[in-house]
Sequence to fold (192 residues):
Amino acid sequence: MHSSTRRLKELVIFAILGSIMFISHMVMIWIPSVHLLGLFIAAFTLTYRVKALIPIYVYVLTYGALYGFSPWWIPYMYIWLPLWGMFMLAGKYRLPVKVKVPLYMALCALHGLSFGILYAPLSAWVFGFNFQGLVAWIIAGIPFDVIHAISNFAAGILIVPLSELLKKLDAQTMHRNVENGEYTESKQITRG
Fold:
């Protein structure tokens, strides 16, 4: 497969994955602080590594395009990066599945629990909070952060199966070696 064809295929796949993130969020938007974004970000990062930023930002930009690029949206530009970073680190280690699953669930829960703290700096700037106001803002959001952590923890059980499925699909469609992420020559099947 030529590199330009490979890149085009990747971009299409990443656009679809970002759209899946967006659609899943829209389907679950009626449940406060509950979504599958942590699951998707984790699985995409474990599968595509640095390139997982593409579907993440497809989601972020689509969300902004629909709801407006106003100040509340600015944290979306950085709020997913800690989760992506945690899975970039966690993905470097070959761990047994019995360790991966609870670790990945805990990492997703940690991000959900810290969501309000990550969002707070912009809130302080937009609303002109002093330090006490910032702390009050964070405390008021704790119930939502706990719900977010619990839902991320529950969805986290699907990270390993989803990332393994994505790796297999990626190997089939992109002719990439599942173990090291490098491209291999496709084998032609001939009938004779």
